[in-house]
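Pasting as-is:
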Amino acid sequence: MGTDLTKGDIMTHVRQIAIPASVGLFFNTLYNVVDTFYAGRLSTDALAGMTISFPIFFIVIALSTGVGSGTTALSAISLGEKDVNNFHKLGINAIITSIVISLLVFIGAPFLTEFLFELSGAIGQAKILGIDYTNMIFMGALFFVLNSTINGMLNATGDTKSYRNFLIIGFFMNLILDPLFIFGWFGLPELGTAGVALATVVVQAVGTMYLSYCLINNAVFELKIFKKSSLSFKTVGQILKQGIPSSLNMATIAIGVFVINYFVLLYASGASTIAAYGAAMRLEQMTLLPALGLNIAALTITGQNFGAGLYERIYEVQRKTIIVGGLMMVVGGIIIFIFTPFLISIFNNDPLVIEAGTSYLRIEVFALPTYIILNILISVLQGVKKPTFAVYVGLYRQILLPFILFPLFGGLYGINGVWYSIVFINWSALFFTYVYSKVTLKKVFN
């Protein structure tokens, strides 16, 4: 499967790319919902420990996303330029880069795990269970990064269906493997939160095999050209130059969650609020899901059209995806505002958890459109080889303003002051990103 995105109706291409991607992400979030559900059934401490582990686990996600999105952008540009040899050269070098990065994570990250949990303020059983989960995840870092890289090549050809299929299969696998490893069914050892992570590693390993098969059978991919391609430090440098800003942006998100966890623990009492935040994040992700495929479509279509020099089509894809994404978030926000207490109770029926989660989400819904529009703007910038601003806006959103506003408004209004600060931070970040994007695209195209 390979689609020429430099021709034809833009919205047709957006639908063909975004819908499979969103369906896949929906099942990926259901996957995480299953993990959260079982953690909540284990104990409130288990749910709190996994929530605290999220920004640490996000190290792997950040690295995976960086290499994957960098591969998508550069590969799409090569296809737009009709340079199939460079497409394959980028592929082999991206895979080599993924393996090296994964080995570094596998060797170095576990030494930091306990320190990072202590830094977050985690204590007691929540800390112990969170560390068990995180250490197991790091063992499977190779599969996470490889899957993102291979999917990056598939995305560049317009194929988001293969990754969708993997995520659907992965969800059903996880549904079976989670209780199997967590509770020790059929004579297996009872692993608790480490079992949640082990199920994820097994699913990712299967995904690597499946996505490799899909890539080899893609119409654009030619195994002979791929085998002839060799390691090029220049190409690795191009991938890192394109991917590192994306990784750093994702890393700032991890740090941002880390910062939020810290202030939640500071301004709220007990594990109930941090557990509520973890459950509420899953619901927030599900609300964002229908529109998340739009940024993948924006990146892929922008990349191919940038390579072909068709700049008006880039403006069109940016404008139309922003309108569609914004409207979807307004509808999603209304739904989640109404049904929040019931939805939180699915994960944990503790009245304190339900109350805290409802309070967070009914404020957070006002920030929902910003996430989608920010992602689209940053994806378009990356598609024209301007990925660096993502790092600056990430630092602004996740570190600079939180350390200024969280203590200020948290001190005045408690935990709700933190939630209101998040809304303000995101809307101001969107304003700056929009202005920068408008000026930068004009310069690039001129």
